[in-house]
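Hey, I was hoping to borrow your eyes for a little while. For a while now I've been wondering how a particular protein folds. The fold is given in discrete form, as structure tokens running alongside the sequence. Could you read through the record and tell me how the tokens relate to the sequence? Take your time with it, there's no hurry, and the full record follows here:
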Amino acid sequence: MPRALLPRRLVQLYAGLVLYGVSMGLMLRADLGLEPWSVLNQGISRHTGLTIGTVTIVSGALILLLWIPLRQRPGLGTVSNVVILGLVMDATLTLVPELPSLGARIPLLAFAVVLNGAATGLYISARFGPGPRDGLMTGLHLRTGRPVRLVRTCIEVTVLAAGFALGGSIGAGTVVYALAIGPLAQFFLRRFAIKGLPEQPSPVVARGGASPGRAILQK
């Protein structure tokens, strides 16, 4: 890939990861339901006493261990994802107070979901490797031959059920996120695409048929 594009790629990577962590923290403050992995991390946090950001970092590192038998290779974006999301999430929760008013929490949720989509477009377009959870999904797809959509659905239903059993928050925000993140990610992936990079299917896809490069993504 052209070296002249490296500064922009790095800026997009780290801006995207920071904004992703902010969006996760804002979804928590909206208190209307979380996306599946945050439901699980919140549930674990409630039982361990660790901050949800710390749990996010630890769980990301543990998921990376699952990449070994799946023969997935982490990149700079993968490792950065593990560390940055949790740190920024905790920082956001420290800076943003709880909102008792539903009238304030609903627009906060909407903003957080849109921000998450924009952050996704930024860091994936930088092409420094998928996040640990995305790599788990595509790795299982490649090893089992099952469609990406089926693999993703099985993973997220399992994660969501486990998180709910542990006391994680499921609500309207969970449904809104599930419905909106695909179209938002697709829009922002096109918006933040870096001209000059060779065409390449995104390794982080949420929906599609047998190939992980055939549709759009999720984290």
In short: Residues 202-219 have pLDDT under 50 and may be disordered.
